[in-house]
Design brief:
Elements: H1 5-31, H2 36-60
Length: 69
């Protein structure tokens, strides 16, 4: 990752896209009738990706979360 505003923005965009993709995979698994275990795995991945987006946004604004995962 570049240590510039542009680099931070690019990293944020990539994280957001990955979070959106994870949410789509979760919804598709639900529609396809995946097992509860698979759905829970997709849900955990989607939640983690959104948490990473939030943490990234806080860090770039100088408000790092108290606990980084």
């Amino acid at each position: 990752m570049k240590r510039s505003i542009g680099g931070l923005a690019e990293a944020g965009e990539e994280l957001i896209q990955k979070a959106i993709d994870a949410q789509r995979r979760l919804r598709q698994a639900e529609l396809d009738g995946a097992s509860p275990e698979e759905i829970e795995l997709f849900r955990a991945v989607a939640d983690l990706r959104y948490r990473l987006v939030t943490d990234h946004q806080l860090i770039t604004r100088g408000n790092a979360p108290h606990i980084l995962h």
